[in-house]
Amino acid sequence: MFAHVDINNCYVSCERLFRPELERRVVVVLSNNDGCVIARSNEAKAIGIKMADAEFIVRERLKESNAVIFSSNYALYADMSARLMNNLARYTYTLMVYSIDEAFMALGNIKGIDLSQHAATISNNVFRDTGLPITVGVGPTLSLAKLANKAAKKQGRNFMVLDTEEKINAMVQTFPIEDVWGIGMAYYNKLREINIQTAHDFRSLKADFVRKQMTVQGWRLHQELWGIPCNVIKDVAERSKGIESSQSFNTYQTTLEKVEEAVAMHAGTVALKLRQQKSMALNLTVYLRTNKHNVKHDQYYPSLTVKIPFAANSVHELTQVCVQALRAIWQPGYNYLKTGVRATGIIPEGEVQNNLFNEYDNSRKQEISKLLDQINDRYGRGTLRLGVEGFDKTWKMKQDYLSRQYTTNWAEIIVTR
DNA sequence: TCTGGGGTCCTAGGACCC
DNA sequence: TCTGGGGTCCTAGGACCC
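YS: structure for the whole thing
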């Protein structure tokens, strides 16, 4: 059996923990750039605020409800997430961290254990020890554990156990297909056409029909809903396969110079992440985007992937390659909204292959990067950086409602206490 | 006027190999 | 009338997740 655990209204709960007077009020957290709503208190859900609603569309309604609005504060959420995961690790031998606010836990095959009591204990203890409200769903596959979690929330409970065929059968009967893990808009529309409305309807489809229509992933989901495990629970996070840094501009950009600054910053961020996880990259992709929502603008979505001859993770190398790639795809005359840098072909630092004809020596760049990291660790991100990143950063994102860094910044911690 | 920023996995099809 | 049959690797794009 497996448990799926997540934090209820995660980002809102993190903010409320340090502002307890916000209980029972409409609270929302906005995405980067304060663009759209990505977390809602139950009160916000009750007045009809939807996930990913654009801020400017719900602005009036939020105002009328005397809502409290926050910009995303990832330093705070990441720290609270670490506290949750440390706590959960006490209750399992295998903890799979699935996202910032979710984890799967192996519960084993122990006869006689009262799963309901166990789930309730986890939920209550985590709340007592971290202040975070969580929900626990238990089932024989990861998909059913996830489904149990969602079902618990719908019933206003903090845990649910689906440990018998009868309970599973009863639950899938009414469970909406669009709420099933792995069913997004495209599959939902497809399934609706053939009148599939519940998880039970989907289960009743023939397995090879599902395989044909929804690839092997749909087939695995189908199996899991019948209680046959296809997803494996894994302990340690594997090395990521891609590392990306990207961001929308706060206003349209039309000059190469400004976009170069942004690309250089993203290249620096990706290089830092690579070094932090002791990896190097062989491929770098730079892309540009215009605003797809603006039908009056000409659209342009170029991207270029560059294979570099030797794996790299220094800010110099990445920035140089990425800025060159940007110049190659740059076309004047468009209103650019977003740019990003992605590294793929990621290999461990220690396993970098030397080319037979390799006269290339990057030891100096490595030393410079190390020094850069040390200085920035001590004096703060961006204290030392390449000049090409620019100084005024006029394209930087909007964060009008940012809360304090209660748990990660010493000055704030003292104020909070 | 204003609509996020990360990730994952899978498939089809092209390029290339012998 | 005839036009091979395997492979591998890579990439773009689509689908999904939070």
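YS: worth flagging: Chain A has three domains: 2-154, 164-225, 243-389.
IM: good catch. Also The mean pLDDT of chain A is 88.
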